[in-house]
Specification:
Elements (H helix, E strand, L loop, with lengths): L1 H11 L8 E4 L3 E2 L38 H6 L18 E6 L2 E10 L2 E3 L11 H8 L3 H4 L2 E3 L20 E3 L22 E3 L11 H8 L5 E2 L2 E2 L2 H32 L1
Parallel strand pairs: 1-4, 2-5, 5-6, 6-7, 7-8, 8-9
Antiparallel strand pairs: 3-4, 9-10
Helix pairs in contact: 5-6
């Protein structure tokens, strides 16, 4: 009985050698490409990062590039075969088990995209274009830099990326604070930049954004304190109530005119 128990214990704690290691890959960098519309992403080559369908050969422990046969022996994972987990790159890693080296596959998933310093006036078609260059963009995209473009509002297209944690919009042409409210539909958003837009000259800019998006932890590269969160929440609730009363007064005034 004791021998059977010992056998089950050693088996249950043995590492699974068939499951690949997963890590975030470098951002897909399309900055300074003079892009005027999102569809141009499909034909441009990124400055860095691994574009979907262009896997690189892995390197061995000495830093030498492996041959294609080594990749196949390591498991044969490729960017086009990564499925729902996103853009991947096969990389060999040496894992010792009982003194015997075993090849592993490190799967790199693209989670970040840089589109800063272009000429984008809209992000219409962004999801479709990113799906051309990375796998499972809706699930995997967590960080996107759209700074220093010509965007005039927060478009509904951005709300498709529900796992987005960081959104850089500084240096654009956004004028309306109310467009910030749309970002409430991004439940995981914790870092936002909007400085350098006309909207940031509004006296209530910072308190409005923090009150509207209570899950934020950083605004314009500045950490949001707990005191700011509390005071902004109280201010925003009052602001909403005052706005509601003004709307009702305008409605009644219109009825009186009739």
């Amino acid at each position: 009985m004791s021998m059977q128990v010992a056998h089950r214990s050693s088996t249950s704690h043995a590492p699974r050698m068939d499951s690949p290691l997963i890590a975030n890959g470098p951002p897909l960098d399309y900055s300074f490409k003079e892009l005027r519309c999102c569809s141009e992403i499909e034909t441009e080559e990124p400055r860095s990062g691994l574009k979907r369908g262009t896997p690189e050969l892995p390197k061995d422990s000495s830093g030498e590039q492996c041959e294609e046969g080594d990749v196949a022996a390591a498991g044969g994972a490729t960017a086009s075969g990564s499925g729902a987990t996103g853009t991947t790159m096969p990389t060999r890693s040496i894992v010792a088990q009982g003194g015997k080296p075993i090849r592993k596959v490190l799967r790199q998933v693209t989670t970040a995209v840089k589109l800063n310093n272009n000429m984008l006036a809209t992000v219409s078609g962004l999801q479709q274009s990113l799906e051309f260059v990375m796998n499972s963009v809706v699930m995997n995209l967590q960080w996107i830099d759209l700074s220093f473009n010509q965007l005039v509002t927060v478009e509904p297209e951005l709300l498709r990326f529900l796992n987005l944690k960081a959104l850089y919009l500084h240096g654009n042409c956004i004028k309306s604070l109310s467009s910030v409210d749309r970002l409430k539909k991004l439940p995981k958003l914790i870092s936002l930049t909007m400085n350098g837009n006309p909207v940031d000259s509004t006296r209530i800019y910072r308190v409005y954004v923090i009150g509207s998006l209570p899950n934020l932890r950083s605004l314009d590269h500045s950490t949001i304190t707990q005191d700011e969160i509390s005071s902004a929440a109280a201010w925003y609730a009052g602001h909403q109530e005052r706005a509601k009363k003004r709307a009702e007064e305008r409605q009644f005034a219109g009825l009186d005119d009739d």
